[in-house]
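User: Show me a protein chain along with its predicted structure.
Assistant: Here is one chain, sequence first, then structure tokens.
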Amino acid sequence: MATTADIRNGLVIDFNNHLFAVVEFQHVKPGKGAAFVRTKLKSLRTGRVIANTFNSGEKIDIARVERRPHQYLFKDDIGYHFMHLETFEQIAIPEELISAPQFLKEGQEVEIVFHADTETPLNCDLPAYVELTITYTEPGFRGNTATNAMKDATLETSAVVKVPLFINTGETIRVDTRTGEYGERVKG
């Protein structure tokens, strides 16, 4: 058992029989009345963010979670299959636990968060940026850059993102997995 004094960003707590990660918190000491802690909690099951206020000194249950490195192998009817990088154990994870499944490619390294007590996977986090090759996009035209226009590009994972007009088929780009937006062209 811990108290509200132990709250910090990233801490995972058991709240109302669900696991939540603390996204944001603020200790408040009003001039009148007792102190309290205002928090924003993100559900590890649904991804929904809720606001909650704890009284100062209130007991909270800290959940033990572990981040383990895995490599993406393939997808089938069961789900997405990953292999632990140290033990080589394989695990299948449903699509709803993965932060951006449309950007997964074979061999991609990810972190899977496990509840340490029950050994159940909670979610799968891709790196903030992934490098993917464009398999198809309309040809760009020289000199048409004054309007900051964008066009659709299909990536090697079949995901479609908006890219600037100067990007062509066969080029590798960096994509932000949190927003799904084009980041930059990768030289190489």
